[in-house]
């Protein structure tokens, strides 16, 4: 065996929920070559790929091998007119990468500031915030096939991006490991500040002329005011997806709840899951060691020694109450392991 594996390794500090579980084997990889070597050794039939650990809820000890992806690097691939094509490797911190693009004057990701996790997980989840999703600037990615160990390229169409999902969460789940991603950013950015409270925050900050940094700072301020820091309170950010409902269902609900917030999505309507959960009385409610956060009902938290099973039980109770009150099913955004 050429690689050094850690055994019965605690994953508590490797998931932002802070769930105290162990894995049978653990290893960090800093290169594609080492990743291939680890996969070739087949130390365990069960393999879990770990990025930043920000969108995962562990419900039990993992009986196999956990591979932490630490492949780093970011660079300009090419410049074309007012656009810059930037390549980033999977192990880079997403927020640090966004700040780097802003420092260089490249627009497109500023609304996605302060989202926790690694760059490799971003396209898998098609992360988004404040009216922007990574699919808006995505060009292509490279991914390693777990069995053949061949590196394949996926363009925008091949990724089948959807709301908080991609082909890697569905048809190709557990078949590929994302290695690097290319984004098309703009050196003459247009600012997207109409979604959420960004304009209000910019006004509060006294910003007269928008910049990449001011928009990013506004997003960071909003997120910090609403979302608990995982270092202080274990959480994975938004636990549920915002449901999208058809016009007929929306019209009936809106008549009953005229103050219900919503966003038009083509012919359908997106309802904030946080509002639905709050209306059901969950916001700020503590259940054992877990609960719905006092400032943002959409965020489930670990107040200390919660187990993954406790969090899941709370999530299911919330889903049931939203279904009973609004006849809307809210889907978990977090990956359950």
Which descriptors apply to this entry?
Uridine Diphospho-n-acetylenolpyruvylglucosamine Reductase, domain 3, 26% helix, 20 strands, Uridine Diphospho-n-acetylenolpyruvylglucosamine Reductase, domain 2, 4-stranded mixed β-sheet, 337 residues, 9 helices, Uridine Diphospho-n-acetylenolpyruvylglucosamine Reductase, domain 1, alpha+beta, 5-stranded antiparallel β-sheet
Secondary structure layout:
Elements: E1 6-10, E2 22-29, H1 32-41, E3 47-50, E4 56-57, E5 62-69, E6 74-80, E7 83-89, H2 94-103, H3 121-125, E8 128-129, E9 132-133, E10 138-145, E11 151-155, H4 156-159, E12 176-186, H5 198-204, H6 212-226, E13 234-238, E14 244-245, H7 247-256, E15 263-265, E16 268-270, H8 273-279, E17 286-287, E18 290-292, E19 299-302, H9 308-326, E20 335-336
Parallel strand pairs: 2-5, 3-5, 4-20
Antiparallel strand pairs: 1-2, 6-7, 7-12, 8-9, 10-11, 10-12, 13-19, 14-16, 15-16, 17-18, 18-19
Helix pairs in contact: 5-6
């Amino acid at each position: 065996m050429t690689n050094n594996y850690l055994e019965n390794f605690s994953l508590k500090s490797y998931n932002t929920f802070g769930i105290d579980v162990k894995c049978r084997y653990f290893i960090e990889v800093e290169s594609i070559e080492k990743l291939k070597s680890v996969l070739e050794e087949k130390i365990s039939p069960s393999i879990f790929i770990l990025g930043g650990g920000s969108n995962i809820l562990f419900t039990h000890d993992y009986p196999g091998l956990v591979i932490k992806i630490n492949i780093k690097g970011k660079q300009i691939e090419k410049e074309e007119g007012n656009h810059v094509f930037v390549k980033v490797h999977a192990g880079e911190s997403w927020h640090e990468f966004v700040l780097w693009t802003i420092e260089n004057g490249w627009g497109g990701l500023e609304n996605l500031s302060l989202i926790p996790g690694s760059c490799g997980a971003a396209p898998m989840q098609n992360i988004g915030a404040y009216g922007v999703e990574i699919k808006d600037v995505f060009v292509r990615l490279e991914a390693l096939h777990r069995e053949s160990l061949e590196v394949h390229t996926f363009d925008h169409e091949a990724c089948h991006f959807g709301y908080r999902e991609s082909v890697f969460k569905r048809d190709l789940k557990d078949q590929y490991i994302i290695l690097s991603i290319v984004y098309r950013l703009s050196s003459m950015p247009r600012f997207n500040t109409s979604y959420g409270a960004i304009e209000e925050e910019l006004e509060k900050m006294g910003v007269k002329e928008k910049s990449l940094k001011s928009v990013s700072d506004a997003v960071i301020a909003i997120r910090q005011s609403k979302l608990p820091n995982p270092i202080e309170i274990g959480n994975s950010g938004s636990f549920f997806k915002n449901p999208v409902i058809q016009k007929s269902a929306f019209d009936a609900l809106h008549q009953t709840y005229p103050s219900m917030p919503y966003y038009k999505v083509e012919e359908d309507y997106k309802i904030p899951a946080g509002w639905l959960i709050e209306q059901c009385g969950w916001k700020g409610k503590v259940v054992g060691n877990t609960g719905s956060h006092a400032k943002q009902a959409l965020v489930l938290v670990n107040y200390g020694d919660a187990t993954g099973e406790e969090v899941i039980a709370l999530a299911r109770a919330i889903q049931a109450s939203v279904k009973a009150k609004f006849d809307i099913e809210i889907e978990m955004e977090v990956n359950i392991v």
